[in-house]
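Re: export button greyed out
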Amino acid sequence: MRKACRELIHYLDVTVHMFKMAVMTVIEYPSNIAGWLISNPLQFIMGFAIIKFVVESFGEINGWNYGQLAFLYGLSVISHALSMIFFVQGWFMGYYVMEGDFDRYLTRPLGVMYQFFFTNINIVGITDLIPGVLVFIYGCVKSGVTVNLLFIVQIIVTLIGATLIRGGIYILLGSTSFHTRSAVDFGQYTQEIMDKTTMYPMSMYPESMQFILTYLIPIGWISFYPAASFLGINSRYAGMMIPFITLAAGVLVMLAAGAYFSMGLRKYESAGN
Amino acid sequence: MIDVQNLCKDYVMRRKEPGLRGAIRGLVRPEHKKIHAVSDLSFHIDDGEIVGFIGPNGAGKSTTIKMMSGILTPTKGCVLIDGRDISKHRKEVVRNIGVVFGQRSQLNWDLRLGESFELLKHIYQIDQSDYDRTIDDLDSILGIREIIDKPVRQMSLGQRMKGDLVASMLHSPGILFLDEPTIGLDVSAKYALRKFIKEINRTRRTTVILTTHDLGDIQELCERLIIINHGVMMEDGRLSEIVDRIAPYKTLVVEYYDESAPEHDRCEMTEHSGNVAKYRFIKNEVTAAEIIADLSRIKTIKDVSIEEAGIDDIIKIAYGQSG
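Workaround output, generated via the alternate export path:
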């Protein structure tokens, strides 16, 4: 127990330091920040503008009105931004495998997966967080949910779970490159699928697809079920427990991803000199 | 203390056939071929040794070093460092090793050199006092303080190598692995690196294991050589012993006053051009003095010199043995 605590403190200490270094690295190239600050939020504000247009033309999407859609959209973008900060490297894992960049992590006395993600913390992901939070707050106001302590705790639990689900999926996809030994950038496809299934009500898709997104690839728990439950919209699952199911799903996906990653790492071949 | 036991590493390669037809056949019915990068290596390295791994490109040196430093998982066999298997207890065992790859830096490209050291201080949980002492110590050998505030991206290759060496020694490991550390370095940077290796080996008793293609590195640093080719150990021993065993000859160069040169029955004339003749003889069979005495009785000698078998000869012979 004492040993586990000491180890946790060690990891936290290293994480704080890596965060500092990531911030220093961003500051080193100030002109990049300006670019990200403009392009990233714009991307999501535009996305939301399209939803606004659709809703104003048709009244609602699948029983979800404008405010409720903003709530769903915001929730989805926030967890997307969090996953971009911590886990975006999963998209590019193939390149790291091919270049032999895991050599360094393997010769240091810390977990390899931890080092892979945390030595490459993507502070710039915060620029995605801004539109996410703005649209979410807007959605909260428009849809009239009661914001109290319980709600905030539930939202935090949901976001942790949702980030873990997303991150786990990136890791699962990225780890395939240990076996295929090729660098495929899964990022774009992953994000397309994630966007389409988490930013809009999942109930608009066919039953069979909803089944897959609920039980096989638990993307539905990222934003759809939690939002439906918070807003009191009729869906298959609702209630106080939903955020914790999201968290459990996140932990499960992460565990599976970790196991698959470790399996891949044993097949790691480094890169020739 | 390092114990390498029956170490093997196989790679599975897919056989590629030429053309589109071949590509499709490879897709439908792939043929796998096993490549033995390293087969059945066993050796023992004591604390405080400096061991050079040499062998031609693709011989399996890097694969061996990567298995020894925990990067690759062996197909068979094991690497025990102080009695513990590195592939089973990676996190504990790597605390006591440092690794430098000549072609890959562990320093943060964007930030000043000192930031990379700070991060390592946190990763290896080094006390501030130990950290300061180590930096002072290494500064006296490498002059690292001059460049500690410079961003790594602005450094020369030689400066970056100094940074990497310090980075790998910050946690005072007992074993240091260097994979082709002198590659691309200029003469003075090479000199600094060799001085560094000798110093840490002398003052800290650090075990050093390096791969290199540089004959100067071998001559100046390595008390012991392990020669690998095609993943198999060819030689393991002291440099002087290997030289005596696989190249036990010297060459006597004699200059005469004219172009005719006499033969000698106890050595072989390997070259004869102009006034100069070269005689190769086995060291234990006959001495240079005897040959000179015999030859000078037949003909007047103007000048003599003796060539020892160089390391490059040894390496050529050792590499050649396996075809």
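Chain A has a mean pLDDT of 89. The button fix ships in the next patch.
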